């Protein structure tokens, strides 16, 4: 059987582990050419490159490599050499393994051979890791870390709030309407100074003013201190004194965790926005309504700057999860939202679409039209995000910034005039 369209007749599979990796090489006919176990260090990587070179690997015709992860030093070094690296889902590898053995036999060497055979038979059905620039890879690290820090901050806030409900209703009432709630610097500052309701009731107006200034507040300090003093001195239910003190120590520990989570999110936000502003695509991405430096950095981190990564706008929409998926069988046909997607890109897409409703008249009109047809809020926002992704693909491919008139053209009045 003649195989055409392949960059090389040799394919490499690497079964990844924490301290070692199993390597297998097969030719176009499925014959295993070599197998090797290497260590997870520079010496092991040198062994791998030597083995590939012995099998005909070169800069012009690199041997493609399949591995079950897209992260780690081994993957980073393989990508740095310029050879195509395919990150194969471990679940898919398990299905391919069943093609060669129905008895359930498994070993690291067998998995490495299965990975190599995946490229041999179905390389066109898999996508290699994108050839992103070094800057966008750094932005991806920072953006994902910042997003994780935001989620960790939310979890820390929820743990603290749940604990405060057990004995400290006054602090919850004091910051119930605050934009950032317990994450606000004012709330954290007061909790650090008064971890129990008894301590809060003893805070004087002058002490409250000092705490608010310490938290960075510059306006309405006296009025806010007066309000807090009145809230803290209301009548509430209380735990037993010793129990309340013990709960106060627990609350102090949770406040310190929240302070750390808030500090991490703020520092990473500054780092990722600084890196994002250096990228040439930043001006295009920020031109879209609803995208600022932080949200724009998250979008860029997930789609990258490899223009050949997505063949068309539909591929990008499917990757983002904004395009629906159709399931048809016989007379049954269902159009459903896509579950398998880039969850980080989908998360920022929800924020993007929501904020654009107040930034773009066209986006608002599009959302209202979808809602008028009976769509729910989430479905209408997802459709708007889907449309934005198509626009973003076009703008990045052609180097254009967003234009409201082009994105959401106003309906012409020709038919109305003719009818009159």
What layout of secondary structure does this protein have?
Blueprint: E1 10-16, E2 20-27, E3 32-39, H1 42-54, E4 65-67, H2 73-80, E5 85-87, H3 90-97, H4 108-122, H5 134-164, H6 169-174, H7 185-193, H8 197-201, H9 205-214, H10 221-232, H11 241-277, H12 282-286, H13 293-303, H14 313-320, E6 325-329, E7 332-336, H15 343-356, H16 361-372, H17 377-398, H18 404-407, H19 414-419
Parallel strand pairs: 1-4, 4-5
Antiparallel strand pairs: 1-2, 2-3, 6-7
Helix pairs in contact: 3-4, 5-11, 5-13, 7-9, 9-10, 11-13, 13-15, 14-17, 15-17, 16-17
Fold and architecture overview:
This protein has 420 residues and is α/β, with parallel strands linked by helices. The protein has 3 domains: 10-129, Ribonuclease H-like superfamily/Ribonuclease H (Nucleotidyltransferase, domain 5), CATH 3.30.420; 139-274; 293-407, no CATH class. It is 56% helix and 9% strand. It is built from 19 helices and 7 strands. It has helices spanning 42-54, 73-80, 90-97, 108-122, 134-164, 169-174, 185-193, 197-201, 205-214, 221-232, 241-277, 282-286, 293-303, 313-320, 343-356, 361-372, 377-398, 404-407, 414-419, and strands spanning 10-16, 20-27, 32-39, 65-67, 85-87, 325-329, 332-336. A 5-stranded mixed sheet has the order 3-2-1-4-5. It has a two-stranded antiparallel ribbon with strand order 6-7. Helix 2 links the parallel strand 4 (65-67) and strand 5. Helix 5 crosses helix 13 (293-303). The longest helix is centred in the middle third of the chain and has 37 residues, at 241-277. The radius of gyration is 28 Å and the shape is globular. The N and C termini lie far apart (70 Å).
